[in-house]
Amino acid sequence: MKNFFEPRSVAVIGASNNEHKDGYKILKNIVDCEFKGDIYPVNKSADEIIGLKAYPKIQDVPGDVDLAVIIIPAKFCAGAVEDCAEKGVKAIIIEAMGFNEVGAGGTELQNQIVKVAKEHNIRVMGPNCTGIVSRDMITTFFPIKDVKPNGNVTMIGQSGLLAAGMASDIIKNDTLKINKICSIGNKCDINENDLLNYFKDDDQTDVVSMYLESIAEGKELVKVGKEITAKKPVILLYGGRTEAGAAASKSHTGSIASNSRIVDAAIRQAKFIKAEDFAELKDYAKLMSTMPVPKGNKVAVVTAAGSVGVVVSDLCEESGLKLPKFGPQTVEALKDVFPEFMPPANPIDLWFSIEKYGLAKTLEVTMSAPLNDPDIDAVILILAGFDYTLEVIEKKVVQGIAAKHNKPIIVCMLVGYNEIKNMILEGLGKDIPVFTSLAGGVKALSKYCDYGMKVHKGK
Amino acid sequence: MKNFFEPRSVAVIGASNNEHKDGYKILKNIVDCEFKGDIYPVNKSADEIIGLKAYPKIQDVPGDVDLAVIIIPAKFCAGAVEDCAEKGVKAIIIEAMGFNEVGAGGTELQNQIVKVAKEHNIRVMGPNCTGIVSRDMITTFFPIKDVKPNGNVTMIGQSGLLAAGMASDIIKNDTLKINKICSIGNKCDINENDLLNYFKDDDQTDVVSMYLESIAEGKELVKVGKEITAKKPVILLYGGRTEAGAAASKSHTGSIASNSRIVDAAIRQAKFIKAEDFAELKDYAKLMSTMPVPKGNKVAVVTAAGSVGVVVSDLCEESGLKLPKFGPQTVEALKDVFPEFMPPANPIDLWFSIEKYGLAKTLEVTMSAPLNDPDIDAVILILAGFDYTLEVIEKKVVQGIAAKHNKPIIVCMLVGYNEIKNMILEGLGKDIPVFTSLAGGVKALSKYCDYGMKVHKGK
C-alpha cells in the first residue's frame, strides 16, 4: 500500500497535451501538487507533456515506477496492466470508466484486469475512480486548486465526488482538515478493508470518514472495523440503503447494494458511526478530529437565548444526551454571574451576565464551571453573530477555555454564520468545531458520546 | 390588531437618553425604521430624547396614541397600563421582564396588568417580549441594523430571539424574505390564535413560521389553524416537547409546557408543518415562500455526481418522497444529452452531458423534461460550486427554467456554498431556494409535498 500513498515515482498512462482530456488534468494535478519524485507521462505520439519528457510505452521509462495511473479507454486497460507488469509496477490506479458500472461488457473488461493483476501480484485501485488526494500526491482529474491537505481526517469514497469537488471545497472553506482522500470506484481489488487496515496504523489519520455503496467482505469489515475503531473513530455513510438508492447505485458504481440490515449489523458490530448524508460525514469528522473522545453523554448547555436553550434541551433528549441538574459546587461557581431572582440551571442562560460583565468574562465563568464538574462530559455553547461575539471570537476566548480542559466543546452559531467563514475556530492549541444548526451540532455530539461510551466500555 | 401593525402614532413609556438602556434602544429603532407617524417618548425627567420632545406622562401627549410600548420595571407596569387607559390607548406592547417567568411574585404583577387591560378593553402583547419588526415599525430593543422587511414570510415567536438576532441575520444574509416578526413573550392577552387569525387575511403574508413554548387554547388553535392552512402554510416549532425542554421552558417564558401528544394532535388536525429546530423553521419557510404548492410527492432528481444521486434517493425514500421511473416521453426528451451506453434514469446523471454540451444546455434539457412530465410533481437539482456552476447561476439559467413551470424546484448546493451568499437565487420572476445539505433540502420538500397533498385532498 505504501506505493499508493508514498510513491517515489509515478507514471500516467494516457497523459495528454489536450487540456480538455482527463489525461492532461491528472498530470497537471500531479505536477501542481509539487510531487517530489519522478513523473513519467506515457503517450504513444507525444514527445513532451507539460514540460516533461513523454514515453510511448511504460516499458520505455528509464527509472523504476512505483505507481501507475491509467486513463485510457476501458478496452485498452488490461493491455496497459500487462505493460505495467512487464515494467515491474506493483501499484496501479485505474481512473478509466466503462467497466462494471455499464453492464455485462464492462464487467468482462474489469475481469480481465483482475486476472492480469492477480497473475503478477499487482494491487489495483479502481477502475472508475479518481484516485488519491494527499499531502504528496493528487491523482484526480478534477481541477484541484490551492489544495494542500495537512489535517488529520482521511476520507474513503466509493465515489469521485469526495476526491473532487468536495475535497477542494472542504479545504478551501476550511470546514475540515483533510489528510488523505481515496476514491476507490468499482473496487476490483483494493477495497475499504485494505484501506481501513492501512489507516489504522497511519499516525497522520485521527478520523476516517467513509462513503460506500457496497460492502466487499462483511466479516472482514467487522474484523478490521473493530480493530480500527478501538483506536480512532470511523464514520460511515452507506449509499443505497433503500430500494430507490440501491437502484441509483447500480448505475453509478455497478454495485449490487448489500441488504441494509446486514450493513446496519456490520456498523453496530464494528462500532462505526453511521451518517445519513454527506453533510453528516463532514460534520461528524469536524467534531471528532478536533475534540477529545467524551467519556459519557451528560452535557451542559450554555446559551444567551432562552428559546434556544429550550430547543437544544429537546434535541438533546431526543438524541439520547442527558442534561443533568448541576450539583452544589457548580451552582456555587455560577452564582457570581447570575442575578438573584434567577437560580443557575442547565441550560445556563447568559443573558443577564453578558449585559453586566460582557461576553468574555461570562464565558470564562459559565464554561469553566461545567467543564470542572466531574458529572459533565461535554459542553454545547450557542453563540449569536452579534458584534460582541465576533470580538470574543477574534480574541480566541473559547479556544483558551477549551485548551485548559480535556472535554469536548461544540459551538452552534445559530445566527450570523456567514460572517464566520472558518467553520473551525482555530488557535491556542485547540480548534473548536462550529455548527450552523442546533440539530446538526447536537446530533454530531450525540454520535460522538455514543462512540465514546462504547470505546470506554470496551476497555 | 391594526393598532399593532399599522399604528399612526406610538408612545414609548420608559424611553431613555442612556444608550445602554432598552428604553433608548427601542426608541432608536422606531426612529431609525423611518416610522411615518408621530413618536412620543415618555419619561418623568427628560425634556428631549433622540431629538424628540419627551413627556412626563402619557396623558400629557398632545395627539392620539395608537400604540404604547412599555419598558419600565415590572412593578410599575400595571400603573402605566392605567395611564394608557386614561389616555384612550387601545394597544400596548409590554417588553419589561420580571413576570410569570420569574415565579409567583411575577405572576401577581402579570395578573394586575391583565385585570386593568380587560377593564378598559385594551389589547396587550407580552410582557417579556420584544414586540414587532415590520415594514413600518420596529419595537424590539435589540440592535437592528439595515433591516427593511419586504418579503412574504411572517414569524411569530414566544421568544425574543426571532425578533432579534435571527431577524437581523436572516435579512442581512438574505436567507429568507421577512414580512413581519412578532415576539409574543408571556402571552398575557394576545396569543398565537389572535395573530394567526389576523395573518390569515394579511395579503402580505404567504407563509407563517411560528415558535411556541405553550399553547394558549388548543381547540381554538385547531380551528384557526385549519382556516389559515387552507390558504397558506404554517410551520410550527414547538419548544418544550421533552422533559428537559419543558424544564428549560419554565424558566424562559414561565410556560407550563403542554403535553407533547396534545401538541402533536393539534399540529396534525390544523395541518401545521412541524419543525424540530430553528434551522428547519427557516428552511421550510424559504421553500414555501418561493415555490408553488406541490400537487403530489413524486420527484425527479437531477445531479452531476452519481454518489449524490444515490444518497438523495435514499433520503427521498426515507422521508416519503417517490422517485418514479420516467415514462417513454420523458426518456425520449432526455436521450439527446445521454450517451448511448447509459439509458436516462431517475436520478438524472448530468456528468456526460455537461462534458459534451456544457451545464446551461444540459439543465435546459434535463430539467424541462421532468417538469413537463405530468407524473412528476417537483424537481431536486444538485449543483456543485465549480466555476461553471457559478457562471450558470450568474446567468440565471435555473430561474429561467423555473419561471416556465408551476412546480417546485429546489437546489441543493452540496459544495461551495460559501461562495453563494444569497441562499435564495433571485431573478426572472422566480426565486429559487438553495439548501446546503441534501438532507435539509429533501426534508423541506417532503414536508411541503405532504402539506400540498393534504390541502389538495381537503379541496
Word description of this protein:
The structure is a homodimer of 459-residue chains. Chain A contains 17 helices and 19 strands. Chain A has 459 residues and is an alpha/beta fold. Chain A has two domains: 287 residues, Succinyl-CoA synthetase domains (Rossmann fold); 160 residues, Succinyl-CoA synthetase domains (Rossmann fold), CATH 3.40.50. A six-stranded mixed β-sheet of chain A has the order 8-10-9-11-12-13, sandwiched between helices. The first copy, chain A, has a six-stranded mixed β-sheet with strand order 15-14-16-17-19-18, sandwiched between helices. Chain A has a five-stranded parallel β-sheet with strand order 2-1-5-6-7, with helices on both faces.
How many structural domains can be distinguished in the coordinates of chain A?
A: 2
Characterize the largest beta sheet of chain A: strand count, sense, and whether it forms a barrel: 6 strands, mixed
CATH topology (fold) name of the largest domain in chain A:
Rossmann fold
User: Shape of chain A from CA axes?
Assistant: elongated
Query: How far is the first residue's CA from the last residue's CA of chain A?
Result: 30 Å
E-strand count of chain A: 19
* Rg of chain A: 25 Å
Instruction: Count helical runs of chain A.
Output: 17
Report the β-strand fraction of chain A as a percent range: 15-25%
Largest interface: A-B, 71 and 70 residues
Determine the fraction of residues in helical runs of chain A and give it as a percent range.
40-55%
Query: How are the strands ordered across the major sheet of chain A?
Result: 8-10-9-11-12-13
Query: Which secondary-structure class do the elements of chain A indicate?
Result: alpha/beta
CATH class group of the largest domain in chain A: Alpha Beta
Question: Mean pLDDT of chain A, rounded to whole units?
Answer: 89
